[in-house]
Amino acid sequence: MSDRICLVEDDPAISEFVSKKLSQEGFEVSLFGSADPVMDQAPGAYDLYILDWMLPGKNSGLSLCESIRKHSPTVPVLILSALSDPSHRVEGLKVGADDYLSKPFEMEELILRVNGMLRRRSWYRSLPAQGSVFEWDDCAIDFERLEGRAGNRTFQLTQKECMLMKLLVEKEGQAVSRDVILDRVWGYHLFPSTRTVDNFILRLRKYFEKEAGLPKHILSVRGLGYRFMR
Amino acid sequence: MRGLNQKHIFFLFAAIYILVLAQVGWWALVFTRDADLISNLKLQQRSTTPQMVQEIQAEAYRRKLMFLSESLFFAGAACVGLAVLFRALRAERKSREVQRNFIEIVSHESKTPLTGLKFRLESLREKAADPEMARSLTLALEEVRRLSGVLEKTLDLNRSERHALQFESLCLAEVVQSVVHRLEPWLAAKKVQLHLELDPEIYVRGDFASLQNSVQSLLENAVLYNTTEPREVRITVLTRGSRAVLSVADNGPGIAVSDQSRVFDRFYRGQVASSVSGTGLGLYLARVIIEAHRGALRLVHVVRGACFEIELPRTRVV
Lengths: 230, 318
Prior knowledge:
Radius of gyration of chain A: 19 Å
Mean pLDDT of chain A: 87
Oligomer: heterodimer
Number of helices of chain B: 7
Strand content of chain B: 5-15%
Number of strands of chain B: 7
Largest interface: A-B, 25 and 33 residues
Helix content of chain A: 25-40%
């Protein structure tokens, strides 16, 4: 069965072309000129969303993205926008978009990004052998519910944090380079530098390590990347 | 006044105002004391009648009055002058802000129709059976690409002038790699032999998108103005003391001596302008951006071809 894509774009020249090209690639595309009708649709209706930021009607692409995130934390969302400032990009990613493409863009790039997002989603959905919950020491992580536990403390994790943990857990005991992490978790160099990976690791250590400064499970491999040890 | 916001300017003017008032107050105090001193000396030196004492005291009073009124006049004049200057400066900043907002809105608003136009042209080119028509549409698409470039450069310039750059620690080699990745199809079409020598351990504090655009301008120029076959471009990232140095060198004809002093001028296109399409903004903008990073962009003298060098303060690798 082909993947279903919801494309919300009010400019007919763009939406017709993008929709035609995605259909040629084998996707099932539903086209909308505003965010309002998509707001009322059931969660899980699509495998991926492509949303223009500025749309006519009550809701913008950003508010639609927020609403999608509330119901489906893992469905990929890509924002298309004429706003190309890094601050706009950050704003888009903050509301939960997985990727951001500024206009004018190349159709080949959009298709590559869509395929990458679906590939990463499919990898994330394939749960580790032990099931959706992985436990070590007095910690646990639920990859399906995006939840973490350290001692008696439970907390919510973002999808990217869970993806990063899943990658490290899958390669337990092996060093995983920053480049591999960027490629598997982010796909594109959406964030500018491999420093992003380091920041995410720091956050994960704060969640799961007893002493974030002296990690025992999420370890640094100097000059390469990181390694997970149970 | 570059780099100062409204609050900074207000405090600067307030400080100058206080200094002027203090200075004038000090003068008034010193001169009135002098007036007293002079009158006391006069009274001590001569044998005085009550009428003379009255005259000396009246003269001292007049002197004091004169010094005080002069001080007040100077203080008032200085305040009025400062206020007029402050208002003019504020009005000028406001009008520049309006201008920048206008440029930003127009540039952003143009992007959606431009994307629509690009896709319509691509659709037509796919359907075009006539090779002449297909060639015309390819040229039209090239013009759209150029226009997009101008819009991006305008927005970049606007951002750097607004001090809206977002600084963070970033790997210079990654900036180069992302530009190469972005231009890969274009570089392949132009049959460019690209040599990269990038030290991955060099970090700088910078705005990723702006640095990307600066490096892209240098790389595009190294290709577009290079008539040598095959075109070769060498990009290196290395350190020089505490500085990070990124250089882009080509094997082309180089830059004419008469153009060298003006290559960074806004809208300056040089002697080969007629053979290559461009805006004359690329190098100017790249230099503005690099200087906003406390760095330098310069043309380096080489035996063959052209070589541009970006020098930036290096940050510690964590």
